Amino acid sequence: MRIETSEIDKKGFLATPSHSSNRRSICKAEGPERTVVLLQSSYIPWRGYFHLVNKADIFVFHDDLQYTHSDWRNRNKIKTASGWSWLTIPAGRNEKRLISEVEVDDLSWKGKHRRAIEQNYCKAPHFEGYAHVLDYLYANDITNLAMFNQRAIRFIATLLGISTTFLDSRTLNAKGQKTDRIVDIMLKLGATKYLSGPSARSYIEPGQFEAAGIQLEYITYRYPEYSQLYPPYCPQMSILDLLFMTGPEAPAYIWGTEATTPPPNTESSRSL
After folding, report:
1. 183 burial type by CB count under 10 A (0-12 exposed, 13-18 middle, 19+ buried)
2. DSSP at 98
3. DSSP three-state, residue 88
4. Contact 77, 45 (CB under 8 A)
5. Tens digit of each residue's pLDDT (9 = 90 or more) over 99-121
6. ∠ Cα 66 67 69 (to 5°)
7. Alpha-carbon gap, residue 88 to 206, rounded angstroms
8. Which of 168, 164, 152, 163 is nearest to 38 (CA)?
9. Exposed/middle/buried for 91, CB within 10 Å: 0-12, 13-18, 19+?
10. b/e per residue, 194-228, with b = 16+ CB within 10 A?
11. In whole angstroms, what is the distance from residue 183 CA to residue 214 CA?
12. How many whole angstroms separate alpha carbon 242 and alpha carbon 247?
């Protein structure tokens, strides 16, 4: 079910003026808990990304932030016989633009990435059943990086059985920087909980969430190993690796377990 921001106050939350700041204060009336995740879109991300998506009631793509090159926005990892390898979208090194403003006019990378995936996963047990994913990802003329990534993430989320509502932060007219900006978005969406990845601990100010009446929680990534084509095992591959190797059982390897976190990857790498 898609929730429009104009409907948020009808979903059990009452907007009232704050006496301590000029922000809106969202007071919970008789309504449901609402978990919101705010995260930049990434290129065919790993399973931890989809774990966050699945745990959210609303997942907000935070793509009106500064673009950083050679980051998860434009690259991810696949397995090959020579070790894990980067698949990198040639989005350039210019960081004086937002993620949502990044355009990649030369689309030849799509064919290259598709061939690399086909060559390295054609013998995977579920490759044939999920080969149509590559048609969806690469048989198009999309040049905008954020649009490409968001579209791919929504599609893969559907394959995993996820029913989370997706929003784009550009529609929310967010104010402020860092924690101020996050809290502003949470208030606009009537969030009762903000769920974040663990790396955000370095800059998030917990007191601002407490003052706003929003629970702050960090996800813990604990996933079991699964069979991969080329040993040794490497845990942080693109979600495509998990789909091609485990097929319809993929969700059980994301949120269906509380197994111990696999050891750090020690494999060699090369770039495609």
Report:
1. buried
2. B
3. strand
4. no
5. 999 999 999 999 999 999 999 99
6. 145
7. 35
8. 168
9. buried
10. bbbeeebeeebeeebbeebebebeeeebebeebeb
11. 8
12. 7
**Domain ranges, ordered by start, for the chain:** 5-252
Instruction: Specify whether the CB–CB gap between 104 and 72 falls below 8 A.
Output: no
Q: How many whole angstroms separate alpha carbon 162 and alpha carbon 170? A: 23
Cα(47)–Cα(44) distance, rounded to whole angstroms?
A: 10
CA distance 147 to 149: 6
Q: Is residue 188 within a helix (H) or strand (E), and if so which, with residue range?
A: helix 178-188
Q: 123 with 80: CB under 8 angstroms?
A: no
Backbone angles phi, psi at 130, to 5 degrees: -120, 10
pLDDT single digits (tens) 190-241: 999 999 999 899 889 999 999 999 999 999 999 999 999 999 999 999 999 9
Q: Which residue has the tokens 């979208």?
A: 89
Q: Determine contact, residues 268/82, Cβ cutoff 8 Å.
A: yes
Q: Are 213 and 25 in contact (CB under 8 A)?
A: yes
Residue 172: name the closest of 157, 191, 197, 198 by CA: 191
